[in-house]
Amino acid sequence: PWGAPTSRQDLSISISHKRHMAVALVARHEHGSLGVDLEDLSPVREGIESRVLRPEEVEGVAALPPDRRWISTLLRFSIKEAIYKALAPRHRRYIDFKEAAVFPGIDGHARVELHLESGPKPAVIEARYTWLRRSVLSTVRTRWLP
Predict the structure, then answer these.
(1) At what angle do helices 55-62 and 66-91 cross, to 10 degrees?
(2) What is the three-state SS of 31-79?
(3) What is the pTM of this model?
(4) CA-to-CA distance for 135 and 39, rounded, in angstroms?
């Protein structure tokens, strides 16, 4: 359902893949809901900013030197894909890119502000990323109130 892998009821599973790599995260639901995304650094996809970034994110990207704007946009896109995967099992609906704002730090963590149109909001959302040789790997964990 919604493109998510199926598993035992007590597990949260998220997968992502590209031509050169596949990744999976698995945890017991008691540890939260998971999302993972893997994105190739190239080719540059011109024009995705307007579809995936909120106004406050556009400001942050525009303030960067031109040679860093694509990487910043791609990183936010990747984290938002992981957010969608972590939220979708509870929401059971399409979650638009504009329903989250992502503010990456230089330490591999990112602050997330949710602007959900409907559905429950997690008590905690944690986002992390790491740069690989040709890709960025993003992970998200949400924790829900009992």
Answers:
(1) 150
(2) HCEEEEEEEECCCCCCCCHHHHCCHHHHHHHHCCCHHHHHHHHHHHHHH
(3) 0.93
(4) 5
Q: How far apart are CA 21 and CA 7, in angstroms?
A: 22
Structure tokens at 74: 């791609």
The closest alpha carbon to 105, from 78, 136, 75, belongs to 75
- Report the C-alpha gap between 111 and 124 in whole angstroms: 11
Task: Give tens-digit pLDDT for 3-18.
Answer: 666 777 788 889 999 9
In angstroms, what CA-CA distances link 44 with 64, 69, 72, 73? 16, 10, 12, 10
Which is nearest to 122 in space by CA: 96, 100, 144, 92?
Answer: 144
Q: Distance between CA atoms of 105 and 100, rounded to whole angstroms?
A: 16
What confidence tens digit (pLDDT) does each residue in 90-133 have?
Answer: 888 889 999 999 999 999 999 999 999 999 999 999 999 999 99
Q: Which amino acid is at 47?
A: G
Q: How many Å apart are CA 59 and CA 64, to the nearest integer? A: 9
Cα 135 from Cα 141, distance rounded (Å): 20
Q: Which residues contact 139 (CB under 8 A, 6 or more apart)?
A: 25, 34, 35, 36, 82, 127, 128, 129
